[in-house]
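Project standup — Tuesday

K.O.: blocked on the structure for the chain from last sprint. Re-posting the sequence here as requested.
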Amino acid sequence: MPIATVNPATGETLKTYEAMGDEEIERRLQLAEATFRTYRASNFVDRARLLIQAANLLDEDRQDIARTMTTEMGKPIRQAHAEAAKCAKAMRWYAEHAEELLADEEPAEADVRDSGASRVRVRYRPLGPVLAVMPWNFPLWQVIRFAAPALMAGNVGLLKHASNVPQTALYLEDLFHRAGYTEGCFQTLLIGSGAVGGILLDERVRAATLTGSEPAGREVASTAGQMIKKTVLELGGSDPYVVMPSADLNRAAQIAVTARVQNNGQSCIAAKRFIVHTDVYDAFAERFVEGMKALKVGDPQLADTDVGPLASERGRTDLEELVDDATRSGAHVLCGGKRPDWPGWYYPPTVLSGITREMRIHREEAFGPVATLYRAGDLDEAVLIANDSPFGLSSNVWTRDEAEVDRFVRDLEAGSVYFNGMTASHPAFPFGGVKRSGYGRELSGHGIREFCNITTVWHGA
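H.V.: unblocked you, prediction finished:
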């Protein structure tokens, strides 16, 4: 795949880049290793000052970087502005909280005495250069939620961004440089996916994090495993959105529309499978379909656009194939289902019902504005349908029954359970999944500790 900005609203190639050669990659690896030796010794006050300055610059740049993101991957401009603001918020959160999150821990005094020590501490120390392989769908946020905690922990970052968002990738390197970071603290590697393996095998790279597809996750984990390197993987999701009889149906249907089409439906944590109790199925389905029909599809640079184009032609083709497979096998199209006849990689908000286990869309992630509706006879069946997926990233449940809340928390196979609202990442809460959605956690204290050497410091009596 060429490293290029291709406007998905028109299909026009706007700018192309040459991939870095072996000499430049080697220079940057040397720089990362050398910079880490000094940056690791910096204190939290200095690290926080730099990160806050980067957040301030991002706020100043918000209009421009929002337009860049929208141009490169088709995100509606209002959502691009929100993404930039969210990144600045997360940077400030880690600048404020990193020192307490990584403070030395003192085990219980009785355990210290039992070990024969006079004192024991648990200290969090940085690992070194961390390689981040990041996707195009949230081209700023996915990087910042790695970079902010990694830098505050004393690590340095190497970014291999998706090849269709090179301008955003280069912006991020420039942002940290302008904020005052030493050049080797955060570097963007303009490389193709074929170069990732060699970098992972390099001894100077101490760990890796990837957000992306299941095949990409397998490859990174396998390669890193050869070198016994720590990895964090956030992969696909096919999140359930369960609606029970006690739910506020109007609110549940309204939020369901946003939960499905956020980021043009190209979000791992977007709700994709809508599992509705039979007592309220018809009423919910009517409201949900009407909400999907009412969305405005069009130019993502316009403020009133709800759904822009998919990020790539291949992505639209993949989505169409899932829908076509389902309809050939008996699924019903309640709205959408056919690409519009105009330039760009658009696909309309679509709702399918009558889904069976034999259909590909039941097992595979639909990365675009396509929702599947399921009817559940009771809570047990709702849980069975929700868990009948290879993925387990997040989940959404609408109920006012506390006994049902307890059951869903206990039984849903997912990294998060959101009640009476939609899944959304926040810097203070851990984020990640189970099953084929990956392992490890981002954000919160759990995320900043993923790339730390958790060190026991023992003093004899």
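K.O.: great, moving the ticket to review. The longest helix spans residues 44-73. The CA atoms of residues 432 and 441 lie 5 Å apart.
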